[in-house]
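Notes, p. 3: input format for complexes.
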Amino acid sequence: MLRYTATPFLRLSSSSCAASLASRRTLPSLVSRSNIIIPNTKNKRLYSAVAATSPAVKVAKDISLETHTDTQRAAKETQEARSAAATTPLSKSSIIDEIDTSGTTALNAAYQENTGFGTRPIYMDMQATTPTDPRVLDTMLKFLTGLYGNPHSNTHSYGWETHKEVEDARDHVAKLIGANAKEIIFTSGATESNNMVIKGVSRFYKNTKKHIITTRTEHKCVLEAARAMINEGFEVTFLNVDEQGLINLKELEDAIRPDTCLVSVMAVNNEIGVIQPLKEIGNICKKKKVYFHTDAAQAYGKIKLDVNDMNIDLLSISSHKIYGPMGIGGLYVRRRPRVRLEPLLSGGGQERGLRSGTLAPPLVAGFGRAAKLMYDEFESDHEHIKRLSDKLVKGLLALDHTNLNGSADHRYPGCVNVSFAYVEGESLLMALRDIALSSGSACTSASLEPSYVLHALGRDDVLAHSSIRFGIGRFTTEKEVDYVIKAISERVQFLRNLSPLWEMVQEGIDLDSIEWSGH
Ligand SMILES: Cc1ncc(COP(=O)(O)O)c(C=O)c1O
Ligand code: FES
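Output follows (519 residues plus pyridoxal-5'-phosphate):
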């Protein structure tokens, strides 16, 4: 393993081009190569992360830095050795005959030493978070080694160079939604952005406007922020959704009052993938002169969004949902006509005075690169995700007594939520430990409460309890989808065979006609 001096000039650069790879081969001896093959994107691109030091840098053996690519290669070797040694990651009771979850994607294998959680399952929890794109990491590394200036320092080149990178990132983030870079505020993520909007807008208008409108199927951070405003004397209308998960536009229009300061409706739901009619909502809000905010944590870069065309005044973004780093996100705040909000934080007045505090340039730059990749690869990502999603939906719905939750027509295909009647969701999740899944949002996954989103769609507790969310992303492979369909089909059948209810259904008994004795 090669070791490098931790110097400000250590750089990790990426290339998808054979020519530049070849040219790097001629670099002086301080070069390590490790190819990361990302197999499932349209063009089967070959990404290469190549670590190189400046020729002028001296190696000092005592101060060593292990590079990302070395770690990845070591992890891959460990993973391969481990999976070769393992007979099967499941117990004997497994009803799947062939299990091979090892090395299904390069990112799956790109991992560190044993953390005590055994062989890693197939990753299908893309709504909780997405794996970091290696190209994003490449962009971030130079900030963690050499480019350490404070982007707000205006008196020297350390500050200027970081500032430039931050502003480039801002351009990339803005471009994806048709915004001006000046309208993007960097935050720690969508939770903060949503809080900024709900608390900030209502507090700014508190003397004249005391009413907020949102929906029942929002992410918890929106619901809780809105509830917090009730304690500050505001009234909140939580709009219902229909059985498809969509709001009723007439209901929205009727709910708007002269003292309404904000309408907040999410773009893509994190549990069921349903897309709300953003353009229509924007038109109503514009007509009624009310600000329109959308939580686009699950939508940004994944569906087409244009803040001007859709009359969106505020839009929340999260970087870790688009293959970028965690702990960074953004808020679009319209400048013309100017949207007013009170900042949550007092301080140095960074980010147009709306978000004080020193920015985190490695995160900002990684976020910017992730946004640029979403822009550049929108079509190929979409085509890839749609194809795998169609296959997954078809495979799962081929099972009896299953149904897709949420609208089939207005949905982001990377989020598939299916109910498996007569199977208890938690038991199914337990039986699927070779697949990383969730029955709902990550922050509520520790509770066994049925999903409030599925409740809002009119699903009863039992069906809400037997629902599972599948997330497909840029790095999901067809092989993984095939595996998931097979595993789910066999294990649902297995669990149903153990269920007395299922036996009754097979005998043709109408379960609704039964009076169960309570206790
Ligand atoms: C719809 C939605 N809003 C907000 C968030 C919170 O985002 P972050 O993790 O960036 O705070 C999430 C993430 O789970 C989400 O799915
Ligand atoms: S914070 Fe991500 S699902 Fe709740």
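The chain has a mean pLDDT of 81.
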